[in-house]
Structures are given as structure tokens and as C-alpha cells.
């Protein structure tokens, strides 16, 4: 059989594998992507939200000043290249719960760290259909990615300019050596594992922890083009009048099934946020690949120098993958650029043992 030469094999085409594929296709590299979408649908079902101020305490998210400008130019460039629309910048509104919170944000809005992300602060109800008696915080540099359309657009790009195999990676058919990578009839210079919660055998020691999330889909006649976020987020779901509401966080159950408990929890939290009728029209579940220190996992295999990993995107795949896929590719090319906070070396020392 005549070997087919590629520069890179990428395993997995979720948000992580897609961003790596985009970086490599832009550089004119020959790539083979192997993906079996039925293994996990986390990227496909994600609400796609990106928001620089997050968490219960609403603090600036890690590396926001670097990640956010990068993601805007990254997704816009992919839209342009693929002639598809999937990137939707949109303000995010978070109602205040008290006068104290109002005051705190008045103060923060003057700080250079927060000012670039604040569109407006209101001190009286701004959206009559929302529970916001104390007004709220309107954030900019937020929005959502229609992940399904994005993944499909990247997949078509790969099929046109690279190669795509829809199958489970057969690790028995994979040979790693100092000289190259071989998979079935393909020979490659390098392989990058972007397999989400299905950590590959090659990087089996890395602590990817499954965190199940559920969301409901609702239909509601809420008009303003704004993402709501307090207790839950409410993000447009594509069709007019349809929204995704989420999400739950469950480390105990890694099954792909939706549960009545999660639906009840989301409906209860949504009822505290909105003052308009909404009908639940669906429910979805997925499993996020998280890490103990909530930082991504990037790096080179300690034994097989041609094997790399890009994983651990947790709850923030949309904002982390554009920038960190570039960091990974620079590391692959031996430009020492991996930030120690994300380098898998932090786990190699603790967990990796050479195979016998
Ligand atoms: C309910 C929910 C809501 C979310 N909302 C958001 C949000 O609003 N914003 C945000 O930024 N993030 C969100 N996330 C998180 C986001 O989905 C993840 O960060 C992201 O999907 C991780 O992408 P990934 O490519 O690493 O993994 P995955 O999406 O799991 O992709 C891995 C791919 O590799 C394939 N694969 C695995 N093993 C193999 C194998 N052996 N052979 C072939 N293929 C294989 C899988 O089938 C899959 O296609 C949400 C997640 C959930 C569950």
C-alpha cells in the first residue's frame, strides 16, 4: 500500500481540534483529522457563550485581555474564509441584587482593568421583563458562537484542503516512533490529541475530569438582543424566539443522559431571573473536559516527541481554544512559548511513568 503523507494528524474535532486544524490549514500544512462525533457532543451542544467577567463573584476571567481580542479576530477570520455566519458578539446583562452591588460596580467601572469590558451600569430597572429592580451591569466583548455551524464549517474546510476520517481512532493501528507517526496508510510528522473527556491511551495519565452539564431550550417572546446572566445564562439558540438556558455542573454523573432534576433546577433559577412566560421545548446534556487547576493542558509527550496534547478546556472552550491553539503550534515548532500554567509538565512529574 502506498503511504499517504501528511504533516499532522489531529484526533478529535471538537472546539479544541477545530482550532488546531484552523491554525494549521492557515499555514498551508497537510492535515488528517480523525473524529468520531458520537464519542462526545460537548462542543456541538455548548451554548457557545464567551464572557470576560465570570463566576459568582464576577471577576475578570484568567488572561481575558489576551484571549478576548484574539478570539474576535480568530472567529471573524474563519467566518470570512468559510463564508459562513456563526460568530455573534452581543452585550450581556447581569441584574444587580442590591444597592451594595451597584456601588461596587460603580467603583470597578473606573478601574482600567474593568473599564474596557463595561458598556453601561444602570441603577434602575432597564428591562421590564427581567427581575432587575436595582438595575444591572451591561458588559461588552461578550457574545456567543453557534458551535454547530462553526464545527461544520471547519469540517468542510478540512475536507476541501485536508483529509477527514469519521471513525474512532484505533490505537492498535497507530505507531509512534522517533522518526514519525503512522496510522493505517497515513504517515505524519506529528500527531495532536484533542479528544476531550476521552483521554487517549497515549496521554492516559493526564487528569482530565468529566464535568457533566445540562441545559434546557426554551421558547419565549423576549425581544432585546442581549444575553441574560444571573443564576443561569439565557443565550439565543438560533431559531427566532428560542434560547438556551444553562447550565448545571455535575462531577458525579458522567452519563450523556438528561435528568428531570437538572430541568427543575434550571427552571427554578430562570424563574428568579425573568418576568415573562417561557415554554421548555427541549433539554440537552454534554460532558466538559476539566482539570484540577482549571487550566488547559498543552504539551509534548515526555517520551514520544512527535505526540502532543490539547485538552482540558473545561467550561470555556470558546474563549480558550483560539489563542491556545496558536500557543500549542508554536510549541510544536519548538518556539518556546508554552506558559507554565498550561504546560502538561506540571502533571508529568507527578503522574507519568514510562511504559514497561
Ligand atoms: C451543557 C454545556 C454547556 C456549555 N456551554 C459553554 C459555553 O457557553 N461556552 C464555552 O466556552 N464552553 C461551553 N461548554 C464547554 C465546552 O463545550 C468545552 O469546553 C468544549 O466542548 C471542549 O472541547 P474539546 O474539543 O476539548 O472536547 P469535545 O467537544 O469533547 O471534542 C472532542 C472530540 O473528539 C472526538 N473523539 C474523542 N476520542 C476520539 C477517538 N478516540 N477517536 C475519534 N474521535 C474521538 C469526540 O467525539 C469529539 O468530537 C459547555 C459544555 C456543556 C456540556
Automatic annotation (TrEMBL):
It comes from Chryseolinea serpens. This is Glycine/D-amino acid oxidase. Pfam families: DAO (PF01266). GO terms for molecular function: oxidoreductase activity. InterPro entries: FAD-dep_OxRdtase, FAD/NAD-bd_sf. GO terms for cellular component: cytoplasm. Keywords: Oxidoreductase. Residues 7-328 form the FAD dependent oxidoreductase domain. The keyword Membrane does not apply.
Amino acid at each position: 500500500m502506498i503511504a499517504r503523507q501528511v504533516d499532522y494528524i489531529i484526533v478529535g474535532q471538537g472546539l479544541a481540534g477545530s482550532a488546531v486544524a484552523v491554525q494549521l490549514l492557515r499555514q498551508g500544512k497537510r492535515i488528517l483529522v480523525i473524529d468520531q462525533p458520537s464519542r462526545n457532543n460537548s462542543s456541538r451542544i455548548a451554548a457557545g457563550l464567551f464572557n470576560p467577567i465570570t463566576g459568582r463573584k464576577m471577576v475578570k476571567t484568567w488572561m481575558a485581555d489576551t484571549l478576548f481580542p484574539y478570539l474576535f479576530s480568530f472567529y471573524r477570520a474563519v467566518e470570512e474564509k468559510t463564508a459562513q455566519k456563526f460568530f455573534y458578539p452581543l452585550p450581556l446583562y447581569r441584574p444587580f441584587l442590591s444597592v451594595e452591588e451597584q456601588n461596587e460596580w460603580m467603583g470597578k467601572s473606573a478601574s482600567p482593568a474593568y473599564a474596557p469590558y463595561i458598556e453601561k451600569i444602570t441603577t434602575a430597572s432597564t428591562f421590564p421583563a427581567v427581575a432587575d429592580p436595582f438595575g444591572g451591569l451591561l458588559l461588552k466583548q461578550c457574545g456567543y458562537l453557534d458551535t454547530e455551524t462553526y464545527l461544520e464549517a471547519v469540517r468542510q474546510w478540512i475536507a476541501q484542503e485536508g483529509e477527514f476520517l469519521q471513525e474512532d481512532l484505533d490505537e492498535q493501528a497507530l505507531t509512534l516512533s522517533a522518526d514519525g507517526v503512522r496510522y493505517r496508510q497515513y504517515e505524519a510528522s506529528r500527531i495532536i490529541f484533542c479528544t476531550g473527556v476521552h483521554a487517549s491511551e497515549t496521554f492516559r495519565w493526564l487528569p482530565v475530569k468529566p464535568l457533566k452539564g445540562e441545559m434546557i431550550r426554551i421558547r419565549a417572546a423576549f425581544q432585546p438582543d442581549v444575553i441574560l446572566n444571573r443564576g443561569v445564562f439565557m443565550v439565543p439558540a438560533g431559531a427566532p424566539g428560542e434560547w438556551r438556558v444553562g447550565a448545571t455542573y455535575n462531577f458525579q454523573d458522567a452519563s450523556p443522559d438528561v435528568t428531570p432534576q437538572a430541568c427543575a433546577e434550571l427552571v427554578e433559577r430562570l424563574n428568579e431571573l425573568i418576568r415573562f412566560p417561557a415554554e421548555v421545548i427541549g433539554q440537552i446534556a454534554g460532558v466538559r473536559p476539566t482539570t484540577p487547576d482549571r487550566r488547559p493542558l498543552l504539551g509534548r509527550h515526555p517520551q514520544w516527541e512527535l505526540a502532543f496534547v490539547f485538552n482540558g478546556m473545561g467550561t470555556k472552550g470558546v474563549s480558550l481554544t483560539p489563542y491556545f491553539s496558536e500557543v500549542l503550534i508554536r510549541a510544536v515548532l519548538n518556539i518556546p512559548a508554552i506558559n507554565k500554567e498550561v504546560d502538561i509538565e506540571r502533571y508529568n512529574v507527578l503522574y507519568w511513568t514510562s511504559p514497561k
